[in-house]
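We were asked to recover a plausible sequence for a given structure. The inputs and outputs are reproduced exactly as logged, with field labels preserved.

PROBLEM: sequence recovery
POSITIONS: 300
GIVEN STRUCTURE:
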């Protein structure tokens, strides 16, 4: 983390170890971290007003009644402060629902290590208002998830896949001729083509899957609760949709996508971020001849 003084309010049971993880993340530098710790909901709200934290970490185990009531109470008391929920695996359902009542993100305690905590804090610091948090998770042009949104949801999907023994299948799609369309037909046509790619990806997956725009030219499709062999089926479905689009709908010529695919299983030691980096790097490391290939080519 950057060596600025970051005000964090942690609400956790006294036997929790999140405070120690935070201190280790900052290397014990007291000038970089201003940490306030409370162990009851009753003391949390007055402390919010007194500390004026930049980030709040809330353990759902502190709530004696409905855990979502505690999330709603904290968010109502500090609506402009990013709120991250900590939860035992038995409370995962409440943790997921907390996103609809004010939480920016959640993490299950068994998966809270320094790397995960660092990602959560960096994401929270990129937005300091609740309204702005939506921009962190969504791409404004397409409405797809952003890279941060994919990392957030992909990490949670990985946790679930570890529990159930299922796989994750990830396709990265590079829109190779976007600049050519922009130069030849103008920015408006290029923007329309980007939206077309978003629609094609969404039409090629199930409702439970996750589609994201990682940067102006790079997209991702994450199939959750999957099996590794389904990757080829997904690629064939996407290829068909793109071919139909290019033959019947595109007024400026074909959309040219370069694809890379990978599968993650519970035996895979990589974090979701590392998994994403691997699949994405297969696109970046492709030779010029390989990058000229159209939809249908895959990288192992």
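RECOVERED SEQUENCE:
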């Amino acid at each position: 983390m950057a060596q600025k003084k970051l005000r964090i309010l942690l609400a956790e049971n006294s036997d929790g170890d999140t405070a120690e993880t935070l201190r280790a993340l900052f290397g014990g530098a007291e000038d970089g971290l201003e940490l306030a710790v409370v162990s009851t909901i009753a003391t949390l709200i007055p402390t919010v007003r007194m500390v004026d934290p930049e980030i709040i970490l809330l353990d759902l185990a502190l709530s004696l009644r409905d855990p979502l009531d505690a999330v709603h109470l904290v968010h109502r008391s500090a609506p402009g402060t990013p709120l991250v929920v900590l939860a035992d695996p038995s409370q995962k359902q409440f943790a997921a629902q907390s996103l609809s009542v004010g939480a920016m993100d959640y993490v299950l305690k068994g998966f809270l290590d320094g790397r995960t905590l660092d990602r959560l804090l960096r994401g929270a610091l990129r937005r300091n208002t609740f309204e702005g948090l939506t921009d962190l998770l969504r791409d404004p042009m397409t409405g797809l998830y952003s890279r941060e949104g994919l990392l957030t949801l992909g990490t949670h999907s990985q946790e679930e896949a570890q529990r159930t023994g299922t796989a994750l299948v990830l396709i990265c799609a590079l829109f190779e001729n976007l600049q050519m369309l922009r130069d030849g037909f103008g920015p408006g046509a290029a923007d329309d083509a980007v939206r077309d790619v978003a629609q094609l990806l969404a039409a090629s997956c199930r409702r439970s899957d996750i589609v994201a725009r990682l940067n102006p030219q790079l997209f991702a499709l994450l199939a959750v609760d999957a099996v590794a062999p389904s990757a080829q089926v997904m690629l064939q479905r996407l290829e068909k949709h793109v071919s139909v689009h290019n033959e019947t709908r595109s007024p400026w010529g074909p959309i040219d996508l370069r694809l890379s695919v990978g599968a993650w299983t519970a035996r895979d030691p990589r974090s979701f971020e590392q998994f994403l980096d691997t699949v994405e790097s297969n696109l970046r490391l492709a030779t010029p001849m390989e990058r000229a290939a159209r939809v249908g080519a895959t990288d192992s």
